[in-house]
Amino acid sequence: MKKILILPVLLVLSSCSTNQIKTGEAPNQTPLIYQSASIPKVNLTLPNEEKPEKRHHSIIEIGKGFFGDDKQKENSTGDVSAKSEKESFLPRIASYIKKGIASWYGPGFHGKKTATGEIFDMYEMTAAHKTLPIPSYAEVTNLKNNRTVIVRVNDRGPYVGNRVLDLSYAAAKKLGIQGVGKVEVKAITPLQALPQIQKTAASQNKNVYFQVGSFASQTKALKLQDKMAFNNLPEPTIRATKNRKKTQYKVQVGPLKSPENAEMLSYQLAKMGIKDPEIVTASRQN
């Protein structure tokens, strides 16, 4: 009778021993890939809930506000979203300002190629700079008499001493610089330069355009023209110019009527992949 009682007890002890072994092996098993620990939430609220400083991306916004009234409240979500979308496409304002000595160059380089490949004209409002993008625009102020001009940077230089800028003959003359002079150079966007460009163009019986492409192939120029028409943009003009027996087909849209008109057109062009179009002038066609 005693032997019969011992057997169940042994079976129970054996079962308990097996369970202990399985429990001990569990920590060594590789966890399943989809089992992830819960991540504590991080409070990203800025101290005192201050709003980040507003950054401007266009000259129109800095002025009276192109995309609406400057007093527009931030809680109008739809308008703010549309404004942010437009700003994301428009070029940012260059942040370069420097004081230094400027010189000028003229007769010895007149008619020769600049760093952009253009022909240097000493009677145009242009300049050479060592690092500013080419082409780009800069506002130059003569610190002696406070005269200011806007120049198109289309060349590299100067490489004499520590001079910061080489002006064309025409730009130096308007600033009242004979030889060298101390100036302040401030990089600006094409849209900031537009009023001055239009004023100069009008005096020369010219209009101002966005140049959106320049091709050696007429077929490519026509394709771009068709693409712009497909995107409901104003139909561009294709101008054929010859240089050393080579023909370039330049696709230009305009004329540009105002900075507001130019900025909206710039935004529309950027949406189809054409960013920072070059501003050019061309003779008026009667």
Commentary on this structure:
With 286 residues, this protein is of the alpha+beta class. Among the domains are: 97-188, Barwin-like endoglucanases; 192-283, Alpha-Beta Plaits, CATH 3.30.70. The protein is 31% helix and 24% strand. The strands form 2 sheets. Strands 1-5-2-4-3-6 form a 6-stranded mixed beta barrel. Strands 8-9-7-10 form a 4-stranded antiparallel β-sheet. A hairpin with a 5-residue loop joins β3 and β4. The longest helix is centred in the first third of the chain and has 24 residues, at 2-25. The radius of gyration is 34 Å and the shape is globular.
The amount of helix comes to 25-40%
Low-pLDDT runs of 5+ residues are 1-91
- The number of helices is 7
Radius of gyration using CA atoms only: 34 Å
Major sheet details: 6 strands, mixed, barrel
Let me know the CATH homologous superfamily of the domain at 97-188: RlpA-like domain
Shape: globular
- The secondary-structure element order is HHHEEEEEHEHEHEEHE
Strands of the biggest beta sheet: in what spatial order?
Answer: 1-5-2-4-3-6
* Helix-strand makeup class: alpha+beta
Q: Please report the first level of CATH classification, the CATH class of the domain at 97-188.
A: Mainly Beta
Taken as a percent bin, the fraction of beta residues is 15-25%
**Count of beta strands:** 10
Straight-line N-to-C gap: 127 Å
The CATH architecture classification of the domain at 97-188 is Beta Barrel
Task: Provide the CATH topology of the domain at 97-188.
Answer: Barwin-like endoglucanases
Task: Give the overall pLDDT as a whole number.
Answer: 74
